[in-house]
Amino acid sequence: QEEAQAIDQELFTEYKFSVDQLMELAGLSCATAIAKAYPPSSFTTSQPAVLVLCGPGNNGGDGLVCARHLKMFGYDPTVYYPKRPNKPLFEGLTTQCQKMDIPFLPEFPAEAALIDELYGLVVDAIFGFSFKGAVREPFSSILSTLERITVPIASIDIPSGWDVEKGKADGLQPDMLISLTAPKKAAMHFTGRYHFLGGRFVPTALQEKYALNLPPYPGTDCVLQLT
Amino acid sequence: PASSRQAFPLPSLPRKQPTVLVVCGPAQNGAIGLVCARHLRIFDYEPTIFYPKRSPDPLYRDFTTQCEKMDIPFLSYLPTEVQLINDAYNAVVDAVLGAEAGEGREPCAAILATLKHIRIPIISLDVPSGWDVEAGSSGGISPDVLVSLSAPKQCARHFLGRQHFVAGRFLPYDVQKKFELNPPEYPGTECVVALRAPR
Question: Is B7 within 8 Å of A220 when comparing Cβ atoms?
Fold first, then answer.
């Protein structure tokens, strides 16, 4: 977890990347990976409807970017964003989604069966690699519901609620994980079908410094399928 | 534009090293060139940048830092000896002027004068530099590849090069409709789409 935070810090302070830049590239990777694993034609719902659950931090921001690109790719995303930071970045991302006719649910569909009926996929953009400690409401109820749905879950970077290094045996079991920048230790406990790498912006020098040993991305793709 | 990502075709390059010269002008088109250079580096090309007139805009200065920190060299001058450019690079990315300007002042005019004579392919971003954004150009540079951003500009009708791409897959549907843009359909998750070749 510390290493991931150190890499991020270097990208911001040494390389002068803005959070906006990296978040945009991260969110685009997530949407691209999702489109590869769950193409619109694979949905059993009449429209390729996707529920995107956005948490209170940067992982939520990644989710907003992802939702916007999913819309560009022909999906029907809906966002649930209960705790919104008071910062221009997140307000901007929210406006972009709203202006693209992406609905924001006023409340969370608390019945697992309802989610299963309305959506073909749920994107978990609740907590990321900075997550520590206990899960507070409304997220702990959301995570309980997610543990009961049958439609696939795609988690951004870390399955929400998992310890960033140790995982969580009785927690969320997503079908897909999109690791951003590099897989975190928790990814070793991932047992879903699809593991993608995204966030193709780490300069070679940084990769070497932190011995990331990332496999090469194919061509100009912004995602790499690991499993 | 901050997140505008240019995906370039990957032709087989004639030189052993995949060197590319990226010429960046003083305004937004140049900034897009900086972002492009950084992604080319990630894609394992060897870009070199010529950026004589740097914008004071903090966003664009950060783009410059990102490139520098990724070991992308910045030339201190552009050789007027055209053969030097032809020999050192496989292609030139023209990110000098966009839709915002005409021939431009120095140093753009001098750069364009040199670019008119190179033999390696030129890839122009959005508008071939020096072209009038609507009328095109007589006697200006002749790019091999044009990457139109968001939608082709009027002058693209005069483009005679080999490949024309549209990139910048971020226009919301209602903006497209409002301005009657009719952009082509992007395939799958691609951020670039090739238009039918002009010849």
Answer: yes
